[in-house]
């Protein structure tokens, strides 16, 4: 037990960055870490506030038809879905193929202890997801219903067990993906493809469920029955709180513990094998002498970036999904029509603006593809090789930016044509489809690199920590969201009539931002890199 507690403590301190804050001696670095915690805390607070406002409006509507318990259903199912989605990414690189696997196996620890510590850390981290997704609707429910202190206590107890089942399901899916891919020559490629398929299937099922539970299509009882069928534990959870039914509360808790325990018991037998297999590499034995070729430093650096990128399934899954999503959207629009696409996306847009709304969809997908916000951190122990090589720092920056753009630009060009055909776009609209997402891609590529230079995370045990949980990756995502959302909000509130003039101004603003970012990178960026 003492070993388990120690492992959980060490993993948690490293994952959250608390350990670095406690041990750091530099005041400047401490200030940077504190800023990171404040940024995350403020972001969580804002998300909770926005979610609360949203569920408050839904609560008013549901209270008039006697369906307040739907809020509890939404909370637990929404949390479960998001926990599954995030855990699917985290499990690969956290449970499987973790950097500290060899070190932990060398210690006098049972594999059961290591596995349990990893899983419990996943549980603790996902409590943040619950706070954001499940607490707001629960608060609105308690405010508008005849709940008492016991209902709240019941909710708090059940809250602890909500992540167990989705984490286990996500871990099983991640295990299958990792196990199958470990038996293939191109393990990472297999992992990436299967993970994308799993996520796309999950999204398709979620969209289908969402379309099946519209209030206008079903009454309150119908919606509750549909949600019950979708996820039976949500039924136990809801009635346990609504009716103070301790039998259902016991069912929920026991089911969660049983699933969690069964997974640990079964998977513990394969934990060493699967992780050891993931550490293996393939070597060709048919080496042949060929003519020696050479390339420029920049080209060699770009190749290095490409190999590093595709060697990490977590890196690809976290940064390439926007491009995959954009391609799926384009195919749906082309083969099923724009009306079907807008119905699936469930976004109310005036018919005369649908053609230009494509720019927003493309831009959102493009800004999700920011590889540079983690590229410096992922160098980790190999950073000294770059710094000691006779390579200009600016060329290192160029290689990372060019590689990021090599993922974005071909997709933008291809999908622009597909969407232009699907939406019967004019020539000017097609040009905007090409120009605006490209400018956004350049902006996030340069901006992400600058952010990573300011907030590097060079000490880590899992790539997942860098790609998904570091401040630089978080700020990289926020940068992309902000620069897309601000123009959209401006367009709505300013009631713009001439869309082409507005987009022209947006393009000029983005060009100015790119110019400013380039100057920052050339001056401050080089200075920050040399200090690493």
TrEMBL record:
<feature type="transmembrane region" description="Helical">
    <location>
        <begin position="430"/>
        <end position="454"/>
    </location>
</feature>
<feature type="transmembrane region" description="Helical">
    <location>
        <begin position="314"/>
        <end position="337"/>
    </location>
</feature>
<keyword id="KW-0472">Membrane</keyword>
<feature type="transmembrane region" description="Helical">
    <location>
        <begin position="33"/>
        <end position="50"/>
    </location>
</feature>
<feature type="transmembrane region" description="Helical">
    <location>
        <begin position="70"/>
        <end position="89"/>
    </location>
</feature>
<feature type="transmembrane region" description="Helical">
    <location>
        <begin position="119"/>
        <end position="143"/>
    </location>
</feature>
<feature type="transmembrane region" description="Helical">
    <location>
        <begin position="499"/>
        <end position="521"/>
    </location>
</feature>
<feature type="transmembrane region" description="Helical">
    <location>
        <begin position="155"/>
        <end position="177"/>
    </location>
</feature>
<feature type="transmembrane region" description="Helical">
    <location>
        <begin position="474"/>
        <end position="493"/>
    </location>
</feature>
<feature type="transmembrane region" description="Helical">
    <location>
        <begin position="189"/>
        <end position="209"/>
    </location>
</feature>
<keyword id="KW-0812">Transmembrane</keyword>
<keyword id="KW-1133">Transmembrane helix</keyword>
<feature type="transmembrane region" description="Helical">
    <location>
        <begin position="357"/>
        <end position="380"/>
    </location>
</feature>
<protein>
    <submittedName>
        <fullName>ABC transporter permease</fullName>
    </submittedName>
</protein>
<feature type="transmembrane region" description="Helical">
    <location>
        <begin position="246"/>
        <end position="267"/>
    </location>
</feature>
<feature type="transmembrane region" description="Helical">
    <location>
        <begin position="401"/>
        <end position="424"/>
    </location>
</feature>
């Amino acid at each position: 037990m003492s070993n388990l507690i120690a492992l959980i403590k060490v993993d948690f301190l490293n994952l959250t960055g608390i350990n670095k804050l406690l041990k750091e001696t530099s005041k400047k670095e401490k200030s940077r870490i504190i800023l990171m915690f404040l940024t995350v805390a403020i972001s969580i607070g804002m998300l909770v506030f926005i979610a609360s406002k949203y569920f408050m409006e839904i609560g008013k509507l549901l209270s008039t038809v006697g369906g307040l318990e739907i809020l509890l259903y939404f909370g637990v199912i929404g949390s479960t879905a998001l926990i599954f989605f995030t855990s699917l990414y985290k499990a690969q690189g956290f449970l499987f193929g973790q950097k500290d696997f060899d070190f932990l196996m060398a210690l006098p620890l049972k594999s059961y202890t290591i596995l349990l510590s990893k899983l419990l850390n996943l549980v603790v981290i996902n409590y943040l997801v619950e706070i954001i997704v499940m607490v707001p609707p629960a608060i609105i429910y308690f405010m508008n219903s005849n709940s008492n202190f016991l209902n709240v206590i019941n909710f708090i107890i059940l809250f602890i067990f909500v992540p167990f089942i989705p984490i286990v399901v996500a871990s099983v899916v991640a295990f299958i993906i990792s196990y199958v891919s470990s038996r293939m020559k191109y393990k990472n490629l297999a992992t990436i493809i299967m993970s994308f398929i799993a996520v796309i299937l999950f999204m398709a099922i979620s969209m289908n469920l969402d379309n099946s539970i519209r209030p206008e299509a079903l009454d309150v009882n119908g919606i509750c029955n549909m949600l019950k069928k979708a996820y039976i534990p949500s039924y136990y959870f809801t009635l346990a709180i609504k009716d103070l039914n301790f039998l259902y509360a016991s069912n929920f808790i026991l089911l969660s513990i049983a699933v969690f325990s069964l997974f640990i018991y079964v998977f513990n037998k394969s934990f060493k094998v699967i992780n050891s297999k993931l550490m293996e590499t393939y070597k060709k034995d048919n080496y042949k002498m060929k003519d020696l070729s050479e390339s420029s430093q920049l080209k060699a650096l770009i190749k290095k970036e490409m190999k590093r990128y595709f060697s990490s399934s977590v890196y690809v899954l976290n940064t390439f999904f926007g491009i995959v999503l954009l391609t799926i959207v384009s195919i749906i629009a082309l083969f099923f029509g724009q009306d079907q696409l807008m119905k699936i996306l469930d976004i109310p847009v005036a018919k005369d603006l649908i053609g230009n709304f494509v720019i927003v969809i493309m831009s959102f997908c493009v800004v999700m593809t920011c590889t540079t916000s983690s590229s410096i951190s992922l160098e980790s122990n190999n950073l000294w090789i770059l710094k000691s090589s006779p390579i200009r720092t600016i060329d290192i920056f160029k290689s990372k930016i060019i590689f990021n753009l090599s993922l974005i630009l071909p997709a933008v060009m291809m999908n622009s044509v597909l969407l232009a055909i699907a939406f019967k776009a004019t020539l000017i609209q097609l040009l905007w489809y090409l120009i605006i997402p490209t400018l956004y891609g350049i902006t996030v590529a340069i901006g992400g690199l600058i952010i990573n230079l300011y907030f590097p995370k060079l000490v880590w045990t899992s790539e997942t920590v860098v790609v998904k949980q570091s401040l630089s990756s978080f700020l990289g995502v926020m940068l992309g969201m902000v620069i897309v959302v601000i123009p959209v909000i401006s367009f709505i509130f300013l009631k713009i009539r001439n869309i082409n003039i507005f987009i022209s101004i947006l393009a000029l603003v983005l060009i100015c931002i790119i110019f400013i970012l380039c100057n920052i990178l050339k001056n401050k960026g080089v200075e920050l890199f040399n200090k690493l």
